[in-house]
Amino acid sequence: MKVTVVGAGAVGASCAEYIAIKNFASEVVLVDIKEGFAEGKAMDLMQTASLNGFDTKITGATNDYSKTAGSDIAVITSGIPRKPGMTREELIGINAGIVKSVSESLVKHSPDVILIVVSNPMDTMTYLAHKVTGLPKNRIIGMGGALDSARFKYRLAEALEAPISDVDGMVIGGHSDKGMVPLTRLATRNSVPASEFLSEERLDEVLQATKVGGATLTGLLGTSAWYAPGAAVSGLVQAIACDQKKIFPCSTLLDGEYGLSDLCIGVPVVLGRNGIEKIVEINLSDAEKAAMQASAEGVKATNALI
Ligand SMILES: NC(=O)c1ccc[n+]([C@@H]2O[C@H](COP(=O)([O-])OP(=O)(O)OC[C@H]3O[C@@H](n4cnc5c(N)ncnc54)[C@H](O)[C@@H]3O)[C@@H](O)[C@H]2O)c1
Ligand SMILES: O=C(O)C[C@H](O)C(=O)O
To answer: Which residues constitute the catalytic centre (predicted)?
Structure first.
């Protein structure tokens, strides 16, 4: 299993590290446009192999896509991150050009690749990758919901004063401060609805904190987060590589599902060796449907800018 990660910055390197530590891929190729940067990150990570006990071979390349040839999965993290006070949508001007050229180069050298798009604004960049490559829709996956759901579980556990392993919850919708739809109605603590333990008001606080999870971290760090994003990507890569058939909320091209078409937005999907093997349609309440509709309108407004 060969995995390419484009962008050896904060998220790309974290993603490569988690993939290597989980020890399921034979090879990870890091690519960056900055001379020597991916090679340096790869060497540093390889020097953790004997310490962390993995056999994955990590190599680096400066903008040389011949090194990525024959990749099974490629992750696109290249592009600029936001700074405090910015929205993800404001990154579109620079990141659209980067994602376009990187997607083209990846598919040219690996025609059977499954693409995972991370660069922001992620739902629009996933849609752009479709327009540019024309790959079948099961082979282009946007990562956002897996991260947002991890943040939702963190906030739920905090409110419930419970261990995170005891809670479950999912976030669908667009990966944006306004567009996320945390499904508080379906959140549980060990199979018991979270609403049995928390007031409507407290659940709404959890929902609001989840939606601005990325902005909160950007305010604290001065740039956007990388550990949880890297871990979330590695989970998707592992589900595909190991044909796990796990459900994750991912951004995918919709064609009537959830009453939406011609956009990429986060919905639950089954991930396996063929990428997105199924879009899972769950029954939403009227309020959740309205939130999804509003989220889709936001994503479409950003799509109109590419
Ligand atoms: N979808 C998500 O959940 C999620 C989570 C975190 C970050 N992000 C996004 O991921 C992107 C990367 O964030 P980061 O913190 O790693 O930024 P970063 O600046 O640390 O790293 C980005 C890297 O991309 C490289 N790069 C730029 N243009 C390139 C090109 N044409 N080809 C190859 N490499 C190129 C840069 O040299 C840099 O090393 C940002 O757009 C950020 O908003 C998305
Ligand atoms: O917040 C950001 O801009 C980066 C990423 O989308 C995140 O949610 O951490």
So the answer is: 175 (proton acceptor)
